[in-house]
């Protein structure tokens, strides 16, 4: 679904990611770990074509990114749901409108999706908070709303950058549960995290693999977590 072949990336001449290859299979579940500043967010940006790598090839759903025009890239990106580290909400818009922004961007009729929206809000436990503004939400509510927005276009892959970064353990488990449910529905999941307890908790439920970025390289971690 997402294939990286010998991908390297540099910011301003200094190499951050070196010679990374990955083939993300349908319904797979991966964690992405590594020290702060190792390049996890950069790696995810390359995976969802927000960033073009300095070297190497990226293929999304079989299509070489280098051969796609803007519309082609946008079409592929709709198949990838992203939970950003900072959620990235528009603070002046109620939660409901923030969540439906991807529908608008994709040219879909938001009113026609009312029922799906109600189901989605219920799934993330935010039915009562639909009209709240993002600054009025708790960390856990924001993260669940970000997840709802990431899945509103029914993507095949979900990339979540520190989705449990600012929440307590109970809420971390709740968010993990939502991601596990998505995985059981056949979605491929990648979660960037520092939280080894979260990885251990996931491994009791799904066959999760652990990728690690260290010293500019991508490793598949051993089974010792
Ligand atoms: N647009 C940019 N221009 C220049 N340098 C950047 C840019 N984005 C990130 N970097 C640098 O690249 C390095 C890796 O950043 P990145 O956010 O990918 O790491 P990370 O592993 O996700 O970090 P963290 O765990 O702290 O979130 C950092 O040193 C960062 O300052």
Radius of gyration: 17 Å
Main sheet attributes: strand count, strand direction, barrel closure: 6 strands, mixed
Overall spatial form: globular
- Summarize the helix and strand pattern as letters: EEEHEEHEHHHEHEHEE
Distance between the termini: 26 Å
Mean pLDDT: 93
Summing up helix and strand content along with how strands pair, one would put the structural category as alpha/beta
Number of helices: 7
Please bin the fraction of helical residues: 25-40%
How would you write the strand order of the largest sheet?
A: 6-7-8-3-9-10
As residue ranges, the low-confidence spans are none
Strand content: 25-35%
How would you explain this protein's 3D organization?
The protein has 225 residues and is an alpha/beta fold. The chain has seven helices and ten strands. It has helices spanning 40-47, 70-77, 95-105, 114-123, 139-151, 169-184, 196-203, and strands at residues 2-11, 14-24, 29-33, 55-60, 63-64, 80-83, 157-161, 188-192, 209-214, 217-220. The strands form two sheets. A six-stranded mixed β-sheet has the order 6-7-8-3-9-10, with helices on both faces. The protein has a four-stranded antiparallel β-sheet with strand order 2-1-4-5, covered by helices on one side. Strand 7, helix 6 (169-184) and strand 8 (188-192) form a beta-alpha-beta unit. Helix 3 (95-105) packs parallel to helix 5. It is globular. Bound molecules: adenosine-5'-triphosphate. Adenosine-5'-triphosphate binds next to helix 1. InterPro entries: AAA+_ATPase, ABC_transporter-like_ATP-bd, ABC_transporter-like_CS, ABC_transpr_LolD-like, P-loop_NTPase. This is Cell division transport system ATP-binding protein. Residues 2-225 form the ABC transporter domain.
């Amino acid at each position: 679904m997402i294939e990286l072949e010998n991908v390297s990336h540099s910011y301003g001449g200094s190499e951050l990611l070196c010679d990374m290859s990955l083939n993300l299979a349908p319904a797979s579940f991966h964690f992405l770990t590594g020290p702060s500043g190792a390049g996890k967010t950069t790696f995810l940006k390359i995976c969802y074509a927000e960033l073009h790598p300095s070297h190497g090839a990226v293929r999304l759903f079989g299509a070489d990114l280098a051969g796609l025009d803007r519309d082609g890239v946008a079409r592929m990106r709709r198949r990838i749901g992203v939970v950003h580290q900072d959620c990235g909400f528009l603070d002046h818009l109620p939660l409901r409108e923030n969540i439906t922004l991807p529908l608008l961007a994709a040219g879909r009729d938001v009113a026609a999706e009312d029922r799906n929206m109600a189901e989605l809000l219920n799934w993330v436990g935010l039915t009562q908070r639909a009209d709240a503004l993002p600054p009025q939400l708790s960390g856990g509510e924001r993260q669940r709303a970000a997840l709802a927005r990431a899945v509103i276009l029914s993507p095949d892959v979900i990339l979540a950058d520190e989705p449990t970064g600012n929440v307590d353990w109970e809420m971390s488990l709740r968010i993990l549960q939502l991601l596990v449910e998505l995985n059981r529905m056949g979605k491929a999941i990648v979660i960037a995290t520092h939280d080894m307890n979260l990885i251990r908790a996931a491994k009791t439920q799904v066959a999760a693999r652990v990728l690690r970025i260290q010293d500019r390289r991508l490793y598949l971690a051993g089974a010792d977590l």
